[in-house]
Predict the structure of Oxidoreductase.
Amino acid sequence: MTKLRMGMVGGGPGAFIGPVHRIAAELDGEIALAAGAFSSNAARSRDAGERYRIDPARAYADLDAMLAAEAARDDGIAFLSIVTPNHLHLPAAKAALAAGLPVMSDKPATATLDEALELRRLVRASGQPYALTYTYSGYPLVREARARIAAGALGKIRKVVVEYPQGWLAGEASGKQAEWRVDPARSGLGGCIGDIGVHAFHLAEFVTGLSVTELFADLAAVVPGRALDDDCTVLLRFDNGARGVLMASQIAVGERNGLHIRVYGENGGLDWRQETPNALTLHHSDGRTEIIQAGDAALGPDARAATRTPGGHPEGYLEAFANLYTDFARLLRGEPAPLLPGIDEGVRSMAFIATAVEASARQAGWVPLLIPGE
C-alpha cells in the first residue's frame, strides 16, 4: 500500500507540536512526511527540512510556494497538516482546500468563531476531508468509556466533571511555546480556554455523547499584565439535563498535564486520567469498583482497534495522536472514521470559547451555547 504523502505548515525549529505530528502520522506506516513550509523564515524552514530528513528541495520558503510546487509533481503531497499558532489556521486551511487538498489541523480550528464559520463553509463547499487533532479522543480507554456510556453502562448521565490543570504559565511566559499562547494576535480571543479548555470541552462531549447547551463562565488573567485568560472555571448544562463542571488552568503550580474526566450516571460512574491513561475506573451502584486496563480482552471494538500492544505494555500520548492520523488515512482511502473530530466539532469548540469569554467578561451568568447554523 502506497504511503500517503503529507505536507506540513509550521513545526520549525523550537516547535513542540510539529515533531509530535510527524511521529504520530508516520507511526502506523500509512503516512510519510514529504514536504513542508516549516517556518516563515526560509533558512529556518530548510533547517527543519534537514532535521525531518526530507528532500531539501521540498522544504519551502512559504505555504504558497509549497502548494504550487507540490501540485506540479507526480509525487506531490496528498494532504496538508497544519501545526502553526492559531491565527494561521484559517489561511493555511483555506489555501489547502482551494488547492484541492484535505486538511488535518491542530486544534482549535481557528482563532475566532467567525473564522471557524468561514472555514466550515469552505470545507463543505470543497468536499475535502478535514479533521482536528483533539488528541485525547484517540486514547483506547477514552474510546472504551464512550462505548460503555453509549451502551448504557452508567444509565442516564447526571454529572460530568472534567479538569485540565497545568502550571507551566504560572510565572513569566518565556520561550517560543509560551509567548504565542499569551498573545491575542496569535492565540485568538482565548488563552487557557482556547489552548487546553477546548480539549476538556471536547472530551466531555466525546465521552458522554451529550451536547452542552448552557454555560456559566468565570475566566481570569491571574498573572499580572497578561492579556488573555490563564485560569477558567465553567459550569455546564447538557442536553439531557445533566450538570457539569469544567476547570482549566495554566497557573496551577505543580500540575503538569492533569486532564481528568469523571462521569456519573444513575447506575455507576467512571474515571479516567490522562497521566495514567492505561486504566479506566468503573464504579458500580452495588459498591463494586472495576479497573479496566488497556489491552484487556473484554475491551470493545473501538478500543481494541486503537490498541497496538498487549496488556501491560503502556501506550500513551503519541499512540493516541497516531490513532487520529490513522483514522484520517482511512478517511482519505474511502473508509469510515466515525470517531475522528471534524469541522463540526471545530465550530462547537470555537463557539464554546467565544461564548465563555464574552459571558465571563459581562458576568452574564447562565447563557445558552448557540452554534450558528445548527
User: Anything to note?
Assistant: The mean pLDDT is 97. Residues 4-135 form a domain with the Rossmann fold fold (CATH 3.40.50.720).
